[in-house]
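Chapter review: from sequence to fold.
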Amino acid sequence: MFPAFLGFIMLLLGKNIDQLAWAVRLFALLNPLLLYLLIKRLLGTREALVAALFLAYFGYTSTLSQAFNIDAFLLTEYLLTAYLVLTAVDRRSSWLSLLSGFMLGLMILTKETSIVVLPTAVVAALLLGWTLKDVLLHYLGVLVICAPWWVWVWNVSQSVFLLGKVPVYFLYLVVAVSLIAVMVFYLAYRLGVFHKLAIYLQANRERCAWVLVIGWTLVASLAMLSQVNDLRVDQSTAKYLVNQVMRGTPLWYVLPLGGLFAIWKSIKGSRNWAYLLAMGILWVPVSLVALVMEISIRQWMIQQALGYASLAGLYIAAPEFFSRLKDWDWKIVLKGIPSRSQVIAFVSSHYLLNYALTCVLILFLIWGTGVQTRILANGIASNTANDNPVATDINPAVLDMKNWIDQNIPKGETILATWQYSYQLAFQDDFKHKWKAFKMNCASGPESISASSCRLDIQVTPVWPPTQIPFWMHMDNACRPTMVTFSDLIREMKKDEASYLLMTRQQDFTATNSWTPALVSSGAFELMYQTFVRRGSPSNQISLSMLRITGREPRNLPTQMSAESVINLAQCERRRVGEDKYVQSIRSILPYGIWLVSDPNDNTAYSAEREREAREIIESIYGYLPKMPSQNS
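The token string follows.
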């Protein structure tokens, strides 16, 4: 649903990234408004206003620097779904019941973990008096939206969310159990069991609701945690909770008080508070998975919004609590000093406490605005200074390359491109050209290269020693090589019917940023256009180079390797052929020498020492250190 939402905005505004980012962030401003409408129906106007203020000033929607945020969009859907459910309950409206089901279905199609809130309608029926007909209409709406997707996913993968691949006999078992259940329900209806059940539910609504909420939460938690491959809670989990979740959640230290207040109000018999508490408990499975997997704090957006709603209720209730202090027997408490009793009775008046707490809230908002603005500014500055490869930044170099492509490459031509900035260029290009992602033949499971950079259909360990001389090679410490030869690259371009090659940095190995000089020096490619992204330190300069294949045979060149790869290569060959033969073996494998290229990903303290060691190894093998052409040559 989130890609569909982005596509809809692009239909309205066009494919301008700045406008699209602003549209998404402004759309997220619906969240405080929807929280206000939701809490107004549940708790009251004052609680709703404070909850909306907390979310607007302290919520992740405001503090995260990421523009395209699926969880902010999910929060909007969730608040809208919950509001529609409450409105349908109040108005006894069938079409609102159906619409709330549609919204829950869309929410599940946005993020399948949202299935944890599926029992919300039944809980609303038990606690708030929603009719059975409207509950069934709600779930009909969910099925209308989700069933086509689940059927399609099952047809192509034989699995759906949380079920995984199941044997065929399990499906037969499900069908048999369903038929038996239909027969049992029919007999129960004929025997009047449903009437007796309705009487029992009417008398024990709260108890049944909590049995459902707690039982579902336990089952959903076990099901979702079973999908986690590395399930463990250790010191890193505690660090994640303290350094990310708590640090990224303003007022976290008082949120537990809001939760305790919600429990207390539920015990006192408030069904609206019980419903709000149930909404929070149903999200526990998602919270557990986020905690165990230590994933981005934006996964906590919904839990945070519900926490702020409970805290708002506590804030509004505080003056009423303190006002009762004047009814206490303060002569006993203060050892018979009536003057102090009178002072406390005055201080605890409704008017004064409301005024004081309002001032405290305003100060909180002012303080929080400053803190979150600083966090946001520091995050943006950090991304810029560290040349964050994930940051989707707009800069003149990318726009220059886009303009050059528009003017010089005919429409419909295929461009083979490495990772960084290529997706942004393809987006801005509006796909006037055919864009293909650069892939390579990878070793099976190299530590520093993920499968996203490899051709999965031929992801096998290359033969060692290689039959062809690579122009770039990576060797990990387990002696697993990853290599690229000119013939590999040319064959991939022919396979993709590409005449143009856009060279930037690849996602997992940044050495591709230095391939351009070698490709041009080989004669197999010619440089058509080149521009540089200069961000942070000069060593983090990124080139965008557009090359065109020439059709000429490439001439032999030294092999590009990082310092770590050179050291690993020497150690591996020592183990393979022995100390006396490893020099001759490397010369035969790489007869034209080694070009030492820096690895910007290597931020270890000993990187300079490792580079010095690699230089000594190359000089000991070849007697000299080949110098690689510069990017600007």
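Two observations follow directly from the output. The radius of gyration is 32 Å. Confidence is low (pLDDT under 50) at residues 384-392, 444-448, 600-605.
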